[in-house]
Amino acid sequence: MNAREAARDALLAAAEQLLNGDVPGPMTGLRLAVVAGVKRHRLTHDNPDIAKSFQDRARQLNRHKPEVERLQDELAKRKARNTALFTENQELKDRVEAYATRIDELVTERALLLEALEGASNVASIRAGIL
Questions:
Q1: Of 35, 54, 38, which is closest to residue 46 (Cα–Cα)?
Q2: Exposure of 8 by Cβ count < 10 A (0-12 exposed, 13-18 middle, 19+ buried)?
Q3: pLDDT digits (tens, 9 = 90+) for 92-120
């Protein structure tokens, strides 16, 4: 086995170790070369197919990292909570508007009743007795 084949085998083994999580650290081309124990140009110039394959698989894994999934779950929960709060806020606004409308109707009705009572001859005004 010549040096080129040995470097290729080392790179493939190191790629599997990194991608499986057996070796800690970032999943970068430089890290791959370090774990394989070869110079970086062996990866980038002599074995670009391994470099590309490793980078593609690492990108796929990075999309599904637990931190990313946790943040995506948190975002989904917050969006759901925001939607629920918005709906509740709208319901409360509608309820306040209904109460305001009803209070206005009651104030108007009260004013009409007071006018009717003041005009009636057989009803004594309570206001007159207080003053």
A1: 38
A2: buried
A3: 999 999 999 999 999 999 999 988 887 76
pLDDT band at 76 (very low <50, low <70, confident <90, very high): very high
First to last CA, the chain: 117
DSSP string, 87-129: HHHHHHHHHHHHHHHHHHHHHHHHHHHHHHHHH-TTS--HHHH
- Report the length, in residues, of the chain: 131
Q: Is 0.90 topped by the overall pTM?
A: no
Burial of 34 (0-12, 13-18, 19+ CB in 10 A): middle
Instruction: Break the chain into its structural domains and give their ranges.
Output: 3-63
User: Backbone phi, then psi, for 74, in 5-degree steps?
Assistant: -60, -40
- Range scoring the smallest mean pLDDT among 46-50, 70-74, 77-81, 110-114: 70-74
What's the CA gap between 110 and 2, in Å, rounded?
A: 103
CA angle 92-103-126, nearest 5°? Answer: 150
Structure tokens at 131: 């003053």
